[in-house]
Amino acid sequence: MLDAIRNTFWDRGYAATSVDDLVRATGLGKGSLYGAFGSKREMFVRALREYCEGGLAYAERTMLGADTGTLRRMRGYVRGMVELVVQRRGCLLAKAIAELGGESDDVDTIVCDFYRRYESIFMRAIRQSQR
Predict the structure, then answer these.
(1) What CA–CA distance (Å, rounded) separates 29 from 110?
(2) Among 92, 97, 108, 128, which is disulfide-ready with 10 (CB 3.0 to 4.6 Å)?
(3) 64 to each of 73, 115, 117, how far by Cα in Å?
(4) Which residues fall within 8 angstroms of residue 4, CB to CB, at 6 or more apart?
């Protein structure tokens, strides 16, 4: 259900996604969606948080490992991310920042936490590569 919600926001953006769009995507009624999430904003926040957690797990899983091969893994990770963004018509995180950055404390918190943790993964990979 959260995948369908995330993909709808990812394809359409926050403002252009209606609750009716989310109903169609999930197959659930409005009452069920509101009962599970409380609001459209909370649906978006949960979808964005899950997206970011998945992205961090993928970055860590893909780039980190034995010191040997780190640079190759980093290159592969970056190329894979470019392909994903092209296939999906953009990045949900970038769309969230463009649409809601600076206007939504919950989105700002998720974004800041993501980039802090993302930087840490890259720094660990760089240190591995240097070794």
Answers:
(1) 28
(2) 92
(3) 8, 17, 14
(4) 22, 25, 26, 27
Are 121 and 63 in contact, with CB atoms under 8 Å apart? Answer: yes
* Cβ–Cβ < 8 Å for 34, 5: no
- Per the listing, tokens 């409005």 go with 30
For the stretch 68-106, pLDDT in tens is 899 999 999 999 999 988 887 789 999 999 999 999 899
pTM for the complete prediction? 0.90
**What's the pLDDT at 90?**
85
For the record, the structure tokens of 106 come out as 């919950």
- CA–CA distance, 87 with 103 (Å, rounded to integer): 28
98 vs 47: CA distance, rounded Å: 16
Within 38-104, residue ranges assigned H as helices are 40-63, 70-87, 92-100
Residue type, 53: E
Q: Around Cβ 92, how many Cβ atoms within 10 Å?
A: 23
Residue 74, pLDDT score: 94
Tokens 């974004």 label which residue?
A: 111
Tokens at 50, concatenated:
């899950």
Work out the percent of the chain whose per-residue pLDDT is above 90.
85
